[in-house]
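C-alpha cells for chain A. Residues wanted.
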C-alpha cells in the first residue's frame, strides 16, 4: 500500500464532479460538507463485524486535523536563506 496521494488537481477534479451534481458546490465550504456527507454515507453502509463506526468517525476527524496541519505547514513561506560571509579560519 502506497499511502494517500493528495494534490490540488485531485481536489479540483472531485469538486468538478460535485459541482455537476450541485452548482453551488463551487463554494468550498459547501464542497467540504459534500465530502463529509459522502464519507458518512459510505460509512453508514459498512457492515464489517466489530466496526465501531463512531470510533472510526473520531479517527477520521483526527486524520483530517493532521492533514490540515501538514498542508498549512507545507504552505508556510520559508524564511529566506541567509548569505554567508566572512573568512573561515580553522583553529
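Reply:
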Amino acid at each position: 500500500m502506497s499511502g494517500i496521494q493528495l494534490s490540488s488537481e485531485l481536489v479540483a477534479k472531485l469538486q468538478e464532479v460535485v459541482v455537476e451534481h450541485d452548482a453551488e458546490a463551487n463554494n468550498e465550504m459547501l464542497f467540504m460538507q459534500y465530502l463529509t456527507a459522502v464519507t458518512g454515507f459510505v460509512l453508514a453502509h459498512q457492515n464489517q463485524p466489530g466496526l465501531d463506526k463512531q470510533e472510526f468517525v473520531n479517527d477520521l476527524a483526527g486524520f483530517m486535523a493532521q492533514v490540515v496541519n501538514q498542508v498549512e505547514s507545507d504552505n508556510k513561506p520559508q524564511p529566506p536563506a541567509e548569505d554567508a560571509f566572512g573568512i573561515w579560519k580553522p583553529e
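DSSP finds three helices and no strands in the chain. The chain has a mean pLDDT of 92.
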